[in-house]
Every structure is written in structure tokens, then in C-alpha cells.
Amino acid sequence: MRVLGVDPGLTRCGVGVVEGVAGRPLTMIGVGVVRTPVDADLGHRLLAVEQGIEQWLDEHRPECVAVERVFSQHNVRTVMGTAQASAVAMLCAARRGIPVALHTPSEVKAAVTGSGRADKAQVGAMVTRLLRLAAPPKPADAADALALAICHIWRAPAQNRLQQAVARQAAHATKGRTA
User: Fold this and answer.
1) What pLDDT is attached to residue 77?
2) Quick one: pLDDT at residue 178?
3) Which residues are tagged catalytic?
4) What is the pTM of this model?
5) DSSP of 51-119
């Protein structure tokens, strides 16, 4: 499975592509950051994020896009920018028919480090180790994007089985009502 991880942000939007399957060594295909000028108006910044993500989708052809789920932060302005960049990433994937998965920061940290409260340095160190890199990707947004992709590769099989079980249960319940 090839996954594009997106750590959304207006100033720095981390992107990283990881390939592999759960239980096997993973491979980093690419990592980077889509940057936008702080002094540009919002519309142009969102357009720059869109163009950057489209370029990554064109170049790496992922099977899935994993995006960090936006959660409430103290700074409303920051959370709005993050949510807008997140929506752009989801839109780019949806336009191409690529499935999108959302993962919370604590899910990603727990998947990669074993602790949902890990700090950025711990996440970077584990991403470096798991992908057998010479050094942690910089800036932290890039490492976070790789962590999102890793998290999705590891969690997707279990999530798919759970969704299938729920669908079977719903179909069985519907069948029971029509009999």
C-alpha cells in the first residue's frame, strides 16, 4: 500500500509518502513540505497548498491519503488555517477518487511511538528508525506526515475488518426485518 500522509498547515503543510504493509518493513518514497508565504492572502495560500498536494499526487500516485484530523486548539486562527489546509488535501484526493483516512494526533503518536502523548522529538526519532533513515526529516511537519502514513498502513487492515463487520451486521439486521 502506498500512502500520502498530510500534516495540514497554511504556512508549512507536511507531506510524506510511505509504501508497505503492516508487519513488514516500510519504505519512505518521498518527504517534503508545501510552503506558503505568510503575507499572501488566504485564497492564494490555499491555492498554493492545493497545487503542492496535486504535484505530490501526480508524482507519487498514492492509493490512499492519510490526513491529520483537526482538533480544537486554543488559537482559533491556527485551527482555522489547519482545517482549511486539511479540507484542501481531502478535496484533492476526492477529486481523483483516492480514499481519505483521518487520524487524530494521539492515534498517530500511539501507533508510531507506543504513547499517545509522545512529543515531536520522539515521533521524529521513531519515524527515522522505522523507515531506516539517516536522520529525522526536517521540519517536524515532514516527519509528522510520514508518521501519518505509517499509522494508516498499520491501522488500515484492522479498520477495514471493523467496517466490514459493521456492514455485515447492518445487512443481517435489515434482512431480519424484511423476513
Assistant:
1) 78
2) 65
3) 7, 68, 141
4) 0.89
5) HHHHHHHHHH--SEEEEEPP---S-HHHHHHHHHHHHHHHHHHHHTT--EEEE-HHHHHHHHHS-TT--
